[in-house]
Amino acid sequence: MEYPGKTIFLVDDDIVNLSMGGDILSAHYNVFTANSGARLMKLLEEHTPDLILLDIAMPEMSGYDAIMLLKENEKTKYIPVIFLTAKSSGADELLGLSLGATDYIVKPFSPPLLLKRIEMHLLVESQKKELEAQKRELIKYNYNLQEMVEARTKTVNELQNAMMNTIADLIECRGVSTGDHIGRTQEYLRVLLYAIKDNPKYRTEAETWDTTLILQSAQLHDIGKIAISDSILNKPGKLTSEEYEVIKTHVSFGESVIDRIIGIVSEHAFLSQAKIMISTHHERWDGSGYPKGLYGNAIPLQGRLMAIVDVYDALISNRPYKRAYSHRDVVRVITEGKGIQFDPDIVDVFLCINETFEEITMISGARL
Fold first, then answer.
1. Which residues does 215 contact at the CB level (< 8 Å), separation at least 6?
2. 220 with 277: CB under 8 angstroms?
3. Global pTM?
4. Which domains does the chain carry?
5. 220 with 161: CB under 8 angstroms?
6. How far apart are CA 191 and CA 360, in angstroms?
7. Are 11 and 54 in contact (CB under 8 A)?
8. How do residues 100-156 score in pLDDT, each as one tens digit?
9. With contact defined as beta carbons under 8 Å apart, do 367 and 316 qualify?
């Protein structure tokens, strides 16, 4: 295999070697000759060869000196260099290779062997360039694929969020004077989530969460209320014990809705988080909550967080059965529930950031 159009530099201070080598190579390649290292450097200012044949024993600038200059220059460092030399010791060959030479040919050289060595190294360089081109194409393909995946993921997330917002709106429409309960609880939860990441007790677990996923799933915490009749859901007075038992069924109904969806789709991360929110935000720290009577750390952390933000918004807002509490009164109620209804450590975190909750309330006009 020959490589017509390839350019070879032949550098040797012996005019006979230059002439003979030039005649051999010119039948196959574009050949430039130089009788010194300095002339080689001058040639490189105007031409970039595909390979350099470089004599070692030259006056003023040896082949070793020349290759060191070549390897220091970004433009020439990757040009393959084959040393031509009368020296044949292993130490000389090792030195040449350690300086960056790709091969070592002892003079006087055999023309067929010289051509075959050149052909072999040009093939290697050609394959390297092909691999580099393929690598660049693969990187470009991967980048484009990543963009496609990100765009697709964004679309899915937007669709998922739109669906969750629509469902949340449907839930909101069932209640009278609940305002943007779901939107506010999301904002309260966002603040609380970032705050507990500074708490040593919860930092490790909270930092593993996908915050966006948690906040999206929180929108479904009351989805089961779709199954509760308006007469109970919007009753202006106190619920009877029977009515309260009906209200409690919104948790199990919400779980069953999520389970049915999980049975249909392949992606469960979002739905699994939603199910945790739905099933545990009415559990109490002392075990007196529902539906399972979980207590303490047996209640998932997501549920313990949701319990505080859900109660905060319920108390701070007008409801058919009560007037809105003041922020100070809500803080007092949550404080009194420390270690009884709520995780005491999360209550402590809440107390440090409760003013932010009040700001969210005022901006949203929850009491109106």
1. 186, 189, 190, 193
2. yes
3. 0.58
4. 7-134 (3.40.50.2300), 175-364 (1.10.3210.10)
5. no
6. 10
7. yes
8. 888 888 888 788 888 888 888 888 888 888 888 888 888 888 888 888 887 877 776
9. yes
